[in-house]
Design a protein that fits this description.
The complex is a heterodimer of chains A (about 120) and B (about 110).
Chain A (H helix, E strand, L loop, with lengths): L4 E3 L2 E4 L5 E6 L6 E8 L3 E9 L2 E4 L8 E7 L2 E6 L8 E8 L9 E2 L3 E5 L1
Chain B lengths: L8 E5 L4 E6 L8 E7 L6 E6 L4 E2 L4 E4 L5 E6 L8 E8 L12 E6 L1
Parallel strand pairs in B: 1-9
Antiparallel strand pairs in B: 2-7, 3-4, 3-8, 5-6, 6-7, 8-9
Classes of the chains: A mainly beta (about 120), B mainly beta (about 110).
Chain lengths: ~120, ~110
């Protein structure tokens, strides 16, 4: 199993540009999570999906952020327009949920730098 | 939601047991305790979880006090590769959310 796959690994963009981060969860997993990590705020849960449906997006910072999961094998996190304060490492994680989430499997993350 | 309190940092000699404490005095009876770790520049990695009973797997042991107000993660023979930030998390009942705190930075030295 290849694990959770995120792309790109690194993204450098200019303020105002649209940024799209991608995630392929582990095959068979039915829950997907997006986290953001910065030195100041640590690991923050942005949003999570269960069976492709967004369950809790209360961690999404503002309307500039949106996430989709069109099918069980793909999710995107979009920032439009991007700002320098969005610079962070964005992690995607997946899990098999059967009432209780036991293990989250994290990807390697996307290092985003907004200049 | 139960909050956790962990020491910000700890040291451990290689080959010795590392005992990482976590306080969760407001935990409810049906809330699980999870431990994850994050090695520098990698995504967090699941270690172990438990509800009431002590648990052991190939990575570590989890000791939960009888009143469930605290727990200890034990790495029986720490190696240099165990140097990481260790997170103790209480999962709120009825949700799949795992909220990470600031964790304990464990430094294993030769």
């Amino acid at each position: 199993d290849a694990g959770v796959i995120q792309s790109p690994r690194h993204e450098v963009t200019e303020m105002g540009q649209e940024v799209t981060l991608r995630c392929k969860p582990i095959s068979g997993h039915n829950s997907l999570f997006w986290y953001r990590q910065t030195m100041m705020r640590g690991l923050e849960l942005l949003i999570y999906f269960n069976n492709n449906v967004p369950i809790d997006d209360s961690g999404m910072p503002e309307d500039r952020f949106s996430a989709k999961m069109p099918n069980a094998s793909f999710s995107t996190l979009k920032i439009q327009p991007s700002e320098p304060r969005d610079s962070a490492v964005y992690f995607c994680a997946s899990s098999l949920s059967s009432g209780i989430i036991e293990k989250l499997f994290f990807g390697s993350g996307t290092q985003l730098s907004v200049l | 939601d139960a909050k956790t309190t962990q020491p910000p940092s700890m040291d451990c000699a290689e080959g010795r047991a590392a005992n990482l404490p976590c306080n969760h005095s407001t935990i409810s009876g049906n809330e699980y305790v999870y431990w994850y770790r994050q090695i520098h520049s990698q995504g967090p990695q699941y270690i172990i979880h438990g509800l009431k009973n002590n648990e052991t797997n190939e990575m570590a042991s989890l000791i939960i006090t009888e009143d469930r107000k605290s727990s200890t993660l034990i790495l029986p023979h720490a190696t240099l590769r165990d140097t990481a930030v260790y997170y103790c998390i209480v999962r709120p009942h009825g949700t799949d959310k795992l909220i990470f705190g600031t964790g304990t930075r464990l430094q294993v030295f030769p």
